[in-house]
Amino acid sequence: MTAFQALLTGADGGPSGTAVSAHFFGTQLAIDPLGSSVDVAQLIVSVGGVDGPELFLNWLDEQGRQASLKPLGTEDIAIVLKEAPAALQPQLQRLWGERQRNRRQVSGWLAGLTGAAVVAAALLWWQGGHAVGVLAGLIPLSTEKQLGELALSQVRAQGGISESGVAQQTVQDIGRKLTAGSRYPYRWLVKQDDTVNAFAMPGGIIVVHTGLLRQAGDPGELAGVLAHEVQHVEQRHSLRQMISSLGWGALVGVTLGDISAVAAMLAHQAGTLYFSRDMEEEADHLGLLALQRAHIRPDGMLRFFQKLDDQDKAKASVPGWISSHPQTAARAQQIRSLIAATPCPACVPLSSQHWQAMKAALPPTAK
Known about the structure:
With 367 residues, this protein is an alpha+beta fold. Helices cover 50% and strands 16% of the residues.
């Protein structure tokens, strides 16, 4: 098979990257002169580049650390596109095609920003956050999913993540009631952490801390939290907040499919994002409606807010979910008003067959 030149980052290529030669043989990607190889089934493809085309082959090493191989030039990319094994071709063809379409779309949009007056207006528009929403809307769902997966791989490397067991099953069962018909293939995970926290990552990944599961008094309270977090995914709040902090150039890059530069930042920010008041109110309102569509009484959302607000007033340690979701008392009052304004006679208290077993299986609080 024809060799191509590439830059290897991680997996012994070092954090700054090392120039290597690579080629495919069978279902393996061989990397010289290191003499190492990677099964193509482990590869996640990402694409990007603002000034020129870029292609990345990403994977996790044996220690769960991210590694990336970037072909150096257009001829090297052409070799990868032509000679990659059949198992890798669907990712390559789909993402490379999307990159070309998105590049034309964004290039056309940017070309319209001509003239001093238009540029000045665009800068003001950017500062107001509107351009973030417009460009975020151009990011393909496949790229958003990749963004979430790479962020999750780094969160998982921190330890304590569970994708099975009675706690995860309980969260998943309740979550699925709230996401029927969604365009996102949701994944529900539990993290062993005593802080009262839950957070959403791009692409439909929801992580719930064991501290929050202890705090939830009944399935309805947990459903209220999950309904809120789901709406941060559905409305792309997490995606917009995470990438907007990187600035214009990075946002355009992600729009074109270049996710390598932001994956580490996503893992760092996960669980600590501060959403705007409008985003929080939207997640509350749409989360409440999602509860009602599932015929779940929404008062569990209100009870959970009130419980955390009471703890805050009592000078207890501020729970993680409060610290990243401010203005709790005011929002509790607004939720109360929304419940009164949208009665749901068909809604009933939520039950869970795993609830007591989940509570009993939670690990003890760390001393």
